[in-house]
Design brief:
The chain is of the alpha/beta class. Helix content is 40%, strand content 11%. α7 packs across α10 and α8 runs parallel beside α15. The structure holds 2-acetamido-2-deoxy-beta-D-glucopyranose (6 copies).
Length: 445
């Protein structure tokens, strides 16, 4: 898998060694599985129903299935994560990966072109050195990287590139989530997968609004040229002196760059025969910060998908004072509020900030340098329960699932969902702005 995206990595030479390691691992896990089986059958002989299990390791544990019978919960979904970072972000990406890892998911790591190829190579080697990543083969590194200027439009092409690779790698994921190296989870993967398993798989969680406000003059009408699309060295975005009018053929929506998108919608954007995603792609190619508007505008202008949008990306962000242009850096002071918010992810954190250690300890139950434990980790070792793995369909949701459930129930409640869904109703503020736009345009003419 790795060699598919990173052709320079010599995977061939290590195969036999890997196979041996894997064999050792499987042997160890079988041994302790036998131990668990004998233990559980002696304490609880009544429940010995066996299950075929969809685990890629074909190992399933009776012990764990007693705790959480599969029949009561739907099959957990699978998430495809695309994680992007820049020069020097490898460590943050790895820490984030460890904190959101689950064998059911797919992970694609992207160090953008501001990082050199040796960092990408190093990242791939670090990934290769983790036994579970090697065994499941669900973590990959983009070998041919892109620029992703968040103030330009290259971020859209980079996100679509990531989504396209993930579509090809696995036919089984249900949602696509784009994260940056500065993001961190606020619930465990077991919490998230557990809650998502009760939701329709066509929901898209996307902050969106048609009240464009201050963004109109600063983001919608200016014309930019993003050098990330045509230069091979980092260079500044430049603004064209002319401005353009807002489109009439469709309505613009804007929101935030991070979203949770359904597989169906991602396929619509990348493989679909409807031309809307492509037309908008070209329209947004010279608009500032257009990733924050692209998916929103495609979703809300599509009859098929506008009914599937939920107006929240399940991410916690703290804003500066109005006009809310820049998200603040989250610190220990924000801990209570961000956990309380019931969000699944927080953004943005500084590298190795103490608040991340507190999240690891109190929320994720993760030891430094280890993978976040979940229902699939069945080793008895207190040191690292994830050295032996069982059925990946077994989840152990904790308090985070309750918080997330509450948040999602609020979002999906009768009033909230439809009122906030791609709403086109003009508020008084909007019509004011519309008038001001007209007068602006007159003065330009
Ligand atoms: C790549 O970047 C890293 C970090 O900036 C630096 O230490 C290293 O020397 C660079 N390697 C090459 C081959 O340029
Ligand atoms: C997304 O929307 C929610 C609810 O409107 C808001 O609280 C949050 O700050 C927004 N996030 C971003 C990144 O805009
Ligand atoms: C945290 O993980 C340890 C094993 O690493 C486990 O024994 C303990 O029960 C876990 N605590 C919670 C609250 O899940
Ligand atoms: C849900 O909203 C619809 C449309 O607004 C309304 O007709 C219906 O009575 C509401 N149902 C409940 C249970 O509030
Ligand atoms: C529109 O312009 C008027 C005066 O020209 C100003 O008072 C008002 O605040 C503006 N409204 C908005 C939403 O910018
Ligand atoms: C390409 C890319 O990284 N896009 C966005 C992914 O999501 C984060 C926020 O979580 C954005 O900041 C990135 O620009």
């Amino acid at each position: 898998m790795l060699s598919a995206t990173l052709p320079t990595t010599a995977t061939g030479t290590t195969t036999s060694k890997e196979a041996r390691n894997l064999y050792c691992l499987l042997a160890t896990s079988l041994l302790s599985l036998l131990f668990i089986l004998s233990f559980s059958s002696s304490t609880n002989p009544a429940s010995s129903s066996s299950s075929s299990g969809s685990s890629p390791f074909a190992l399933s544990s009776h012990h764990l299935q007693q705790q959480q019978p599969n029949s009561l919960t739907p099959t957990p979904p699978s998430i495809a994560y695309f994680i992007t970072g820049s020069n020097g972000d490898s460590e943050r990406i790895l820490r984030l990966l460890f904190a959101i890892y689950h064998p059911r998911n797919q992970y694609l790591l992207h160090l953008d072109l501001t990082a050199n190829q040796s960092q990408r190579h190093q990242l791939a080697l670090s990934v290769q050195s983790v036994p579970i990543f090697r065994a499941v083969q669900n973590v990959n590194v983009v070998g041919k990287a892109d620029f992703a200027y968040s103030r330009g439009s290259s971020a859209i092409s980079s996100t679509l590139h990531g989504a396209a690779i993930l579509l090809r790698f696995s036919s089984s994921w249900d949602w696509f989530i784009n994260l940056s190296a500065a993001d961190y989870p606020l619930v465990t993967q077991d919490d998230l997968l557990h809650i998502l398993s009760f939701l329709p798989k066509d929901l898209n969680f996307v902050n969106h609004t048609s009240r464009i406000g201050w963004r109109e003059s600063r983001r919608m009408k200016p014309i930019i040229v993003d050098p990330g699309l045509y230069l091979s060295a980092k260079s500044d975005i430049f603004y064209v002196t002319q401005k353009r009018e807002l489109p009439q053929a469709y309505r613009l929506f804007t929101g935030s760059a991070s979203a949770i998108l359904s597989r169906k919608f991602v396929e619509f954007c990348i493989l679909g025969s409807d031309n809307l995603p492509r037309v908008l792609l070209m329209f947004f190619s010279n608009m500032p910060s257009s990733l924050a508007s692209y998916f929103q505008t495609v979703l809300c202008n599509s009859q098929e998908f506008k009914k599937t949008t939920v107006n929240h990306n399940l991410q916690y962000v703290s804003w500066d004072k109005p006009p809310r242009q820049e998200p603040c850096i989250l610190t220990l002071n924000d801990f209570d509020e961000m956990i309380h918010s019931g969000a699944a992810f927080g953004s943005q954190f500084l590298q190795n900030d103490p608040v991340l250690d507190r999240i690891d300890e109190e929320i994720l139950n993760r030891t430094a340098g280890k993978i976040i434990p979940g229902g699939w980790c069945i080793s008895d070792s207190n040191n690292d329960p994830c050295t032996v793995w069982g059925d990946t369909a077994v989840l152990r949701p904790g308090p985070g699932a309750k918080r997330l459930e509450k948040r999602i129930v609020e979002l999906l409640s009768n009033g909230t969902l439809h009122v906030n869904q791609c709403s086109e109703t003009l508020t008084e503020e909007d019509s004011q702005t519309a008038q001001n736009v007209t007068s602006d345009q007159n003065s330009v003419d």
